[in-house]
Design goal:
This protein has about 90 residues and is α+β, with helices and mostly antiparallel strands. It has four helices and three strands, in the order E-H-H-E-E-H-H. A hairpin with a 2-residue loop joins strand 2 and strand 3.
Length: about 90
């Protein structure tokens, strides 16, 4: 169940919100005049979320490359890498 708090709690109960976000790794939803306005989360949770988005983007690019037949066997990739390395 989401944790929903009024905007006044950001000012009056900041430490409580911070502790919740760190303890449960979940966002707290902040309302303004009864309407959803913000989602607050710990830096760790935010970085995990951004990391997932970046991974999904890379996976999507890989799937698109396969779809467009822009791939090569791993052996050939390793050969190209080895050829480019100085001795």
């Amino acid at each position: 169940m989401p944790n929903i708090r009024p905007s006044s709690d950001l000012r009056n109960k900041y430490n409580e919100i911070s502790e919740f976000c760190h303890k449960y790794s979940e966002p707290v939803y902040i309302t303004k005049n009864g309407q959803g306005d913000l989602a607050v989360m710990s830096i760790e949770t935010y970085e995990k979320l951004v990391g997932k988005f970046e991974l999904y983007k890379l996976l999507d690019e890989g799937l698109e490359a396969v779809k467009n037949n822009k791939v090569m066997p791993a052996e050939k990739v390793f050969e190209k890498i080895e050829d480019g390395l100085p001795e």
